[in-house]
Design a protein that fits this description.
Helices cover 41% and strands 14% of the residues. It is of the alpha/beta class. The strands form 5 sheets. A 7-stranded mixed beta sheet has the order 4-12-11-10-9-5-6, sandwiched between helices. It is globular. The N and C termini lie far apart (53 Å). The relative contact order is 0.12. The model has no long low-confidence stretch (mean pLDDT 89).
């Protein structure tokens, strides 16, 4: 005999609990989310939940939703059951902001217009060329063992060769291969910084949406910034009595603002950090994505004291799934970070490293970058034209010279959280400015790198309609 729908839902929820997916103390999804998950109406979900509450598996608390109170095993025991959810807040690493976690999940939704994603469109992936690289690599591999602690030597040599075009002189022993730029920041935070150290960041900044440095006990100190990025004098005023400090900066096609630090400002910043003995973490993952003019050379190019740790990656120029990035710095520092990486994951993917080495040394690398730059120019112009047409009366923005982002200032007083929710209900995913700076409540970060042409125009048009209606 066929079970009623609410009984089927009860069995599915119970299976989630007894299987350990939904642990004791954890909050289950909302009624709306459950209805979508199990493809039933909300009344069926309500009936199932009430039955499970009566059975002692679930309990509801005002303001906390519905919580897993027990599992079927714990109901059979006299002893108090293990509550893994009680351990969730005990770890050293802080959890992501609620909005950031939501964005991370929603970026996988193909039905949404992705106007926040910091990733190249799948249409720009060089499928044929990359397949040839992978085939060539696989035909010459005789094993896939662990690489050297600092990473595949061939890849490090190739990166050193590529960095020469940016004015950076480095030897393979001064390069560490990491699983993306984010891992580089994590290794630096746990291996080089003291608890209580001060990390200077521009306001707004990508790193303010993360908890990497704070989880290590570091203090984030925002410094004044303008269209040329951080203002050195503002940092000097803040630095007076801070013995242990470091500067994190994205000088080229800054995330989220898209700004480029001028050559003059780079010189001032380098001089200040040398005088004040402030090490620099230079994040240059967008540096190759110039559209109009080639940007100034990286800070690392003028580093004569080993003061700059330079971070690069293939995630923005090729594919984030490859998980290949690098850190360039003094050998002693790279040795320390390499040891920590070995303790963490025993090295990045060997296959990815072999493929990355072949990719970077082949002619495909520069050909692909040239195509990406042309494409980004088209996409940027589509976005700018749509903004001029639909948002000129309600927003302000600057023209980015490269990268993926337009930092959009909303003129009418509105909480960007409200706009984020309204846009989401209309099928558009944007990144609200407050995840990059709690004071940037009138800003949103728009990306033109991922969505299709027509989606960029349609998404911006809908945003304009929303703002005018609000």
């Amino acid at each position: 005999m066929k079970q009623s729908k609410y009984k089927q839902v009860m069995n599915l929820i119970t299976a989630k609990i007894t299987g350990g997916e939904w642990t004791i103390g954890s909050q289950i999804p909302s009624q709306r989310e459950l209805a979508k998950l199990f493809q039933v109406n909300r009344s069926t979900i309500i009936t199932a939940i009430e039955e499970l509450k009566a059975d002692g598996l679930l309990v509801s608390h005002v303001g906390k939703g519905t919580i897993v109170a027990n599992n079927t095993w714990s109901l059979m025991k006299v002893d108090k059951p293990i509550n893994w959810s009680g351990n969730i807040t005990l770890g050293m690493h802080k959890e992501s902001m609620k909005t950031v976690k939501m964005i991370n999940e929603l970026e996988a939704k193909e039905e949404l217009i992705q106007l926040g994603k910091s990733e190249l469109s799948p249409d720009l992936f060089p499928k044929a060329a990359f397949q040839n690289i992978v085939q060539n690599v696989s035909s010459t591999l005789y094993s896939l063992g662990y690489e050297e602690p600092k990473g595949n030597l061939k890849l490090r040599e190739t990166i050193c060769h590529q960095l020469k075009s940016k004015g950076i002189q480095a030897s393979p022993s001064s390069v560490l291969i990491v699983s993306g730029a984010l891992q580089a920041l994590q290794l630096i935070s746990i291996g080089l910084l003291n608890k209580g150290s001060t990390v200077y960041v521009e306001r707004p900044s990508y790193v303010l949406s993360l908890s990497i440095f704070q989880s290590g006990g570091m203090k984030l100190e925002t410094i004044p910034a303008d269209l040329e990025c951080p203002i050195p004098k503002g940092m000097k005023d803040l630095h007076n009595s801070k013995a242990y400090s470091v500067l994190y900066t994205i000088p080229t096609f800054h995330n989220p603002t898209g700004y480029v630090m001028s050559e003059r400002r780079r010189e001032q910043l380098m001089q200040l950090c040398e005088d004040e003995q402030i090490p620099i973490i230079e994040d240059d993952v967008y540096g190759d994505l110039w559209i109009d003019d080639k940007p100034p050379k990286p800070l690392k190019a003028s580093d004569t004291y080993g003061n700059v740790l330079y971070v690069g990656s293939l995630s923005k120029t090729l594919a984030p799934g490859l998980r290949i990035g690098w850190v360039v710095g003094p050998e002693s520092v790279i040795d320390r970070l390499a040891d920590l990486k070995m303790q963490t994951d025993y090295g990045s993917s060997s296959l990815s490293q072999h493929v990355a080495a072949e990719w970077l040394k082949s002619e495909n690398y520069e050909l692909h970058l040239a195509k990406v730059r042309e494409e980004l120019k088209i996409r940027r112009n589509i976005a700018l034209n749509a903004l001029s047409k639909h948002l000129s009366s309600v927003a302000e923005w600057n023209v980015p010279k490269g990268g993926f982002f337009i930092w959009l200032k909303i003129l009418p007083p509105i909480q960007n959280k409200h706009l984020f929710e309204k846009a989401l209900s209309a099928g558009i995913l944007i990144n609200p400015g407050n995840i990059y700076d709690k004071h940037s409540t009138q800003y949103i970060r728009l990306s033109y790198g991922f969505a299709a042409y027509e989606e960029i125009e349609a998404g911006i048009r809908k945003l304009g309609e929303m703002l005018k209606n609000i």
